[in-house]
Design a protein that fits this description.
Elements: H1 2-23, E1 33-41, E2 47-55, H2 60-69, H3 71-82, E3 91-96, H4 99-110
Parallel strand pairs: 2-3
Antiparallel strand pairs: 1-2
Helix pairs in contact: 1-3
Length: 111
C-alpha cells in the first residue's frame, strides 16, 4: 500500500512540475527545453529527488544552477497547485538526467 501512495505522489509531482517548467524558463537563455524525467520521493514524503532533462544539453549546468537558485519559488508554485492533495510539500532536490547523452555516446561507440 505504501508503494502505491509513493507512485501516486511521484506522478502528481512530475505532472505539476512539468507544467511549471513549461510556463517558466528559470533561465536567462531562450530556446531551452526543460522536462522532468524521473522523480523519486522518500518513504516519509520529506524529500523529492527530481531528475531533469535539458535540451540543448550544452546549457544544462547553467539551467540547473538557475533552477536551484529558484527552488523556493518553484516549491511555492507547486504548493499552490497540490495543496488539496498533499499535506506537506517535500523538499526539492534537482539533478541533471544525462541518460540520453549516455545512450547517444554508447550508440556512437558501437558504430
Amino acid at each position: 500500500m505504501e508503494k502505491t501512495r509513493l507512485k501516486k505522489v511521484e506522478r502528481l509531482l512530475q505532472k505539476e512540475l512539468g507544467t511549471i517548467f513549461q510556463r517558466n524558463t528559470f533561465s536567462e537563455q531562450k530556446n531551452v527545453l526543460v522536462s522532468v524525467t524521473v522523480i523519486r520521493v522518500s518513504t516519509d514524503l520529506s524529500v523529492a529527488r527530481i531528475y531533469l532533462s535539458v535540451f540543448p544539453s550544452s546549457n544544462a549546468e547553467e539551467v540547473l544552477k538557475n533552477i536551484i537558485e529558484n527552488t523556493g519559488k518553484i516549491k511555492y508554485e507547486l504548493g499552490t497547485k497540490v495543496r488539496n492533495q498533499l499535506r506537506k510539500i517535500p523538499d526539492l532536490k534537482f539533478f541533471i538526467d544525462d541518460s540520453l547523452d549516455y545512450a547517444n555516446k554508447i550508440d556512437e561507440l558501437l558504430k
